[in-house]
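PROTOCOL LOG
Step 1. Enter all chains and additional molecules of the complex.
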Amino acid sequence: MPFIRFLLVVFFFSSGLYAIDYHFTETRYSDALGKSLTLHGDISLDEDKLTICYDNSAKKIEYSDEEVQISEEGKPINLNEEESFKLAQYFELVLMLFNADTHSLKQKFQLIQSKDKETLIPLTQLKDYIKKIEIQRKGGTLKSLEMFLRNDDKIKISVEDEVR
Amino acid sequence: MKYVNYLLLIILLFSGLLLKNEIHISTNLLSLFTSKENIQKLYIANELGYSKEMFIAVKGFDKKARKATKKIVKSLQKLPQIQDVYYKVLPSQKLQSYYKKYHFILADFNEQRWSEKELRSAMKKLYMQPNQNLFYTPINKNDPLDIFQMSKSKSIEHKGKYLILKNYGYLIRVKTAVSPSQMAQARILYKNVQKILQVYPETVAFAGFFYTVENSLKIKSDVKYIVALSTFLLLLIYFVMLRDVKLLSHTFVTLVSSMLFASLVCTTTIENFGVLSLAFGTSLTAVSIDYFFHYYFHNFYQNKKKIDKSVLYGFVTTVVAFGIFAFIPVPLISQISIFALLSLSYAYVVFTFIFPYLEIRLKKELKDVQVKKGFLPVWIVLLVSIALLSYSAFQLKFDENIKNLDYQNIKLQKAQKLFSQANIDNLKPILVDATTQEGLLENLHRIKELESNSYSYANFIPSLKACEKSKVKLQDYDFKSLNKRVNCEAQKVGFKKDYFKNTYLFSEKLPSCTGFDLGAFKSVNLSIYKKDKKFYTIAMVQNPSKLQALNFVSSIDVKTMFAQVAKKMFEDIVFFSFIVLCVIFVLLYFSVREKFFFALNYILFPLAVSLSVVVSFYELNIMHLFSLIILIAIGIDYGIYMSITHKQSYTIIAIKYSLLSTFAAFGVLLFSSITALYSIGLVISLGVGSIYILTRFMR
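Step 2. Run joint prediction.
Step 3. Record the structure below.
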């Protein structure tokens, strides 16, 4: 019994070393259209790597080593430089929020903690694009993040339970 | 009377103390090599940050390299002499504001008239966009029809958001407050930077002031080594060969006194007397030792003669030679000549009139010496000399690059090359000026018209003409009607009401085409400097020499500046040397008469040998020329001594010791790794060798 317990502990510890997979729901509200678009997909997160696959799409988005790569059925799709740049910045931010990298977050945001959510106000050039970000966590892991953009659009990512 | 020599030294030291406030030595080496005007330009270029930049490249493009880069940046930012550190491509806040403000003027404007169909189709496409894109893409409220396109500016080499050095790794550009001429500051910053970088062995760093620090360290160690060698040789001569400490003391005191005398007079009376002139003049004083040796070996101090004719003639011709050089328009050479005049005169007076009272006796053992007779006839030596000189005249090439005189720091030169290779267009800096900021921009645009590849404010800021033209185009277009139509179609298609209320209604509030904030461009390495009612900036161009014809452009290429001065220096030196040689020939003739060609060989042969060796393997530089002048001075003396001597054997011994002393003073420079010093050493050693050959083999 103690041996099995030991194995379980090792298993739980080591699973933390590998990427965590979630189902997620992304809701994009467009102020211009006055309505939201909802997407579902799977997201796989690591310390500095992120992979997203949306349902109903053969395309896979990978962010690693501070670069974005999109592929469809294994074939890479070329992005123009500006798009690639902007996406990299976006995913860098998403990863930072998921990993609760407090040190980097404190450099870029003013953190306001309230009862059930964290509000982040951008301090750097990000404030030209983002008004604020609201995060909800449960037991230390991120449950949802919502970005309120300057143009009154909103992006909300809600995470379901971990995929085992 | 025995101690008159020491007394004179004490008097001189005392005078030095009294005149302390009158002594001024100029350490402005730059003023020796270029005009006042050019120094001004270099100063302004310096203020604009040119030559104060430091580059660091971290090898590799992986995560480890990125981490190292960020750590290095953090450490560098803590240093007080660092002004800015750039390692990302992101434009600065100021630059982004500039682009935002002038977006509609800077962008290419598609003036098409939109038909109903086209407009509807465009708005429909826009409406579908959020549904179709894999990623979130915002709706461009300001320009939904995408009629304003910012043309792609030439992108800087980058990977993601980081600057890179192509094929090497991440690049860090640092703006420092230290220019290469600030020795003390340079040392401190150099030490601090090396401390940070030593943890990351695969990084390469370069800055102008690295040369200053590394080369000065090398020069210091080189000088120590040479002084040690020189001292050893001198001690060998005086302790081992002559075995007379009193002699050493007296000659040493005399030489020091003559240097002191000349220094005092020159530094108090000549304006801008340079430290370099002081250094070379001092070393030239060593030449006067041959007066002493001639007197000593001929036992002049013990017999009742008042004047030795050969030394007198030698002294007079040397003085005349330097006297003529004192008028040369090259300040370095004229100052050295005046110094030499003074120190040699002092030495002559002391050796001739004071030394007899110092009770100097010639050691008996040295008197009985046999000397072999030479076999080379004068005319053969003369022919060989003329042949070698003619050969040299054909092979002669001048090295106008003063940088070549410095210690060749291979490691730094490699680093410099690594970074300059990244500058693919191979652009070089020029200084541009105007009386107003608008005028400056106009000038930069004129340069851009001549060279489309140039880099300056004109790459970012439109010319007044272009800007006004843009504005007119925008004001002429009926944006009001476009706005109405866009809103109408938007509503039809399904957009939120009044979402495009203010779209395209900017033409009333277009920004001014003047009064740009030129300080916003520091992150792209552009800055402006104001001095004496003029504005200056640096532009990078491919062909500086062509653009120099424009009256608002000045070159700040140190190499060409120095080359111009170096060329003039060479011409002056050659011209004056020619005059000096003619005068010397005349004086020589009247001193030695029928032995004219014999004596002449002592001048021509060493000159010919040195010159022919130098031109065969190197380009002639200023130090070579300077040393050749010294050879002339030495050659005159020896030629005269050998021609009108009564006791040739004594004269030959005297010359041998003089040659040894000269070698100990100058020849040891042959072991220096600094080109300037090595050049002097080479010429003098060859000269000394050739004169020895003459004393041994010429009949």
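Step 4. Note key features.
Chain B touches chain A through 24 residues (CB under 8 Å).
The mean pLDDT of chain B is 86.
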